[in-house]
Amino acid sequence: MTANWDMSQFVDSHSRTAGHQRTCTVCGRGFLAARPQALYCSSRCKQAILLRRRHEAGRLHRHRRCPRCGDVFVARRSDGVFCSNACRQAMHRKRMVRERVLP
Ligand SMILES: [Zn+2]
Ligand SMILES: [Zn+2]
């Protein structure tokens, strides 16, 4: 007799505990997450954004412009600033001269 009412109660409480309606930041699909702060619909999407971020970070860190000759080069070391030893030494010499000349 009150089957509909009981049913709606069940569905309501069930949906509240089942998850939070979220939108995946990777594929843009809506999904139910266990945690309200969830960002990805699946481990696959999470993996995808981690890979993308790593790739972008690597690209930013590796491609540098040499301050001496202006060439874009791939830094072999994370702290590499110049494209070659020749440029590094040339800048070093220039700085030494400038420091000696300036009062
Ligand atoms: Zn997704
Ligand atoms: Zn250079």
Description:
The termini are far apart. The protein is α+β, with helices and mostly antiparallel strands and 103 residues long. The chain has helices at 3-18, 43-62, 85-101, and strands at residues 20-23, 30-33, 63-65, 72-74. It has two domains: 18-61, no CATH class; 66-103, no CATH class. The radius of gyration is 28 Å and the shape is rod-shaped. Helices cover 51% and strands 14% of the residues. β3 (63-65) and β4 form a beta hairpin. A two-stranded antiparallel ribbon has the order 1-2. A two-stranded antiparallel sheet has the order 3-4. The mean pLDDT is 81. The site of one zinc ion has 8 residues, from loops.
Features:
about 100 residues, alpha+beta, 2 domains, two-stranded antiparallel ribbon, 3 helices, 4 strands, rod-shaped, binds zinc ion
